[in-house]
Amino acid sequence: MNPTNRGPEEYGDDRSGGDGAPRRPSRDPLTPDFGHQTPQQSRTVQLVSGDFLLTVNPVDGSEIEPCRPGERPDAPVRRAAAQRVDRERAAAPPVPPGPPSPQTPLLERRDERERLVRLLARGRSVCLTGAPGSGRTALLDAVAADCADLAPDGVVRLSGHRRTAGDLLHGLFEAVYSAPLYRPDREGLVALVHGIGAVVVVDDLEFGGAALQELLDATPECAFLFATAPDAAVPPADVNLEEVVLSGLGRSASIELMEHVVERALTDEEANWAGDLWFESEGLPLRFVQAGALLRRRDGLRTDQDASDGYDDDPADAPFGRAEPAHPPLPSLGEGAAPAALLASRLSEAARETLRFAVALGGEVPHQAHLPALVGDTHADAALGELAVSGLLSPAGPRYRLAAGVLAQLEASGYGESAEDYARSAAQHFAWWAAHPSVTPERAVAEADAILASIARLVPAEAPGQASVAVLLARSAAPAFAAGMQWGAWEKALRAGQEAARIAGEVAEEAYFHHELGVLALCTGLLDRARAELEASIGMRGALADKPGAVAGRRALALVADRSGEPVHSISAGEEVPDARHDESASPSGGAPAAKPLFPRVTDTSGTLITRQDPPRPGAPSGRAGVLLGARRNLVAVGAGALLAAVLGTVVTLGATSGSEDQEGQSVTTEQSANEDDGESGVSADEPADDSVTGEGTAGGGSSSPGPSGAATPSTSATPSPDTTGPGTSPGTGDSSSDSPSDSPTQGSPSPTKKPTKTPTTSPSESETPSESPTDPEPPSPTPSESETTTDPSTSDSASGPAETVTASTTQDGSGTPTTA
């Protein structure tokens, strides 16, 4: 991939006209040297994961929905032998530019090689244990070549570097089956790999225990050859796994290996130095490859010295501006045991810059195509060849990384002093590169280790702006990893990006990462985690008024609820909840029934609205449209019920204040005092009162009324007692426990009256305070012809709670003439 030299028809830049003649791009008169740039479209990819249709959307977040039968992919097809060979060749590390490195033979490994082949031929799985630098990769290559025809599905090469058991299972499936844009779920994956018969060679295995047992149980027809370090996880004891220990080379074999690297016979002095090095390094082949590189460099210095003999009089005229001794000494034993710094000092500047980037990325070496842009040298891609010849690199899957021990040696030599700056430069470059439309998901997946290492170096961030750069890189690379179906790297990028967004305070990006993590958890069957991530995303996007993102999150959350069978209890910030209970529809605590709504609602114990499900009609919308229409119908039902409750309350209030005759046995309101034979001043207890709508007062003349929060508020009015009220006694005198002293009339009065009292509805904290003091002067009161009830207009707004109500009460004297106190 070279984004700067793209094809003529990419991104709509077709430079040929309709007749085949070349067409000149349009020019801006203000900037004649630059043509108009065609806007780049967002890269969206649709793939199938299990029975889900996943649309990777880099803008608002991935969308997930059930896959319809017509959109399901065909069954995976096994690859032919030629296809497997081509795929394996494409997955191998690229050949470094420059002169080829010398081929090293496989010395003193014949016994181990034959034993491994015999065990694999019997179908046994083997674990090859050896120290880093002991030549495990070279031995694996030889054994894989010997086992090419043992299994029906051939040999599959996988890298276990930073991979889980699930990653290896999906890698095995992709190597054997051809299934474009299809990723099976767990059950489908196990069913497909169960029938694979192949020799699987896994280098740099990093896990063991139950995960290793799970991998072996899922692939009973495969024979595995694992290569791992002694300090890696120990396989369980009950695993049917043979173990072969790989030791170092002997002294003679080590000297022979060095001679192959130097491509000449060693002198006696060099042979003695190599013997001391063998004792120090315990015969690790990597040390002798690097020591041979030191001798090759020493031979090169001798050649340069011979060519500069004519410049002895003026050392400044010598090549590279320095004069080397006629016979350079051999490196010391310490330099031979840890030769990385000495080898790096004799490399080109581009190679040393490449090493600084590798140290900043934790040992991951960027692909050679990125080196010119990172280093700033058009010929920097040749640096990879210099590093490979020096023995400073080792293959890791489709890429290279620093050889064993090189990272620590370079860090001790000062190559990691500006690691954050180099990691930031690499992250900015990869962010631009991964988001470029010409970069395929497969190419981005091949650079996953370097990209993740860049993010890991920047999070947690210490310097200003590092977290924002990490967010940008994760935002650009995560969709590519998802489209490339490497979901292990996708999850790592999302989690690192979410942490970086939290540190940087970028709420919108943090909501995006939560949404993607929820979609990923839904695809992998982790419903509880999916619900938590999606609810967090919906809350953040609701607070930001991000409607497209919130809609995508609610659709995914509805799918989670459908799969789990549990209701969704999420409330988006700043959104109106359709099933919220308002004051006008809540029943008062006194016991009077609320007005029955036109559309009855049923709620479960958790408060979730349950609507009646009608059978589907022909042509009715389904899927996401059905969910949206159902939510709209709920809103219409709630609004209609609230409107009908308000209308019924108004009708009841008008009927209570009218002059019509009522039946006997009507109750007395809390602000009235009447004789037992009064029949026109009260409100019937059998009728639904106005407080059944507004939530004020009590039913049947109770002494409590709900406050603004729904709690009962004691009233200051006396309650009539039917068994103590006589013809000559006021209804309020029969109860000796009246709440207000001013409400008790004088005993024996033939026509007791009660002055009008202004009683505002108080909050629960003020419910025990009388409305007015007994010593307050009597206010002037009008003399209405019949009972009137004046209500504050604010009570019509049910959402604002109970309002202040002033009631003018009337009584009748013995003659039946209404009088006003």
Walk me through the topology.
Blueprint: E1 45-49, E2 52-56, E3 63-66, E4 77-78, H1 81-91, H2 110-121, E5 125-130, H3 136-146, E6 155-159, H4 165-176, E7 177-178, E8 182-183, H5 186-193, E9 199-203, H6 209-218, E10 223-228, E11 241-246, H7 251-262, H8 268-281, H9 285-307, H10 333-337, H11 340-345, H12 349-360, H13 371-376, H14 383-389, E12 393-396, E13 399-402, H15 406-412, H16 419-434, H17 441-446, H18 448-458, H19 466-483, H20 487-504, H21 507-523, H22 527-543, H23 547-564, E14 602-603, E15 609-610, H24 624-657, H25 691-694, E16 704-706, E17 712-714, E18 788-791, E19 805-808, E20 811-812, E21 818-819
Parallel strand pairs: 1-8, 5-10, 5-11, 6-9, 9-10
Antiparallel strand pairs: 1-2, 2-3, 4-7, 12-13, 14-15, 16-17, 18-19, 20-21
Helix pairs in contact: 2-3, 4-5, 4-6, 7-8, 7-9, 12-14, 12-16, 16-18, 16-19, 18-19, 18-20, 19-20, 20-21, 21-22, 21-23, 22-23
Radius of gyration (Å): 42 Å
Low-confidence stretches: 1-40, 311-324, 570-632, 656-821
Number of helices, where a helix is a run of at least 4 consecutive DSSP H or I residues: 25
User: What summary fits the major beta sheet?
Assistant: 5 strands, parallel
Write up what this structure looks like:
By secondary structure, the chain is of the alpha/beta class. Among the domains are: 109-248, Rossmann fold; 580-657 and 683-705, no CATH class. Helices cover 38% and strands 10% of the residues. Helix 6 links the parallel strand 9 and strand 10 (223-228). Helix 2 crosses helix 3 (136-146) and helix 22 (527-543) packs antiparallel against helix 23 (547-564). It is globular and about 100 Å long.
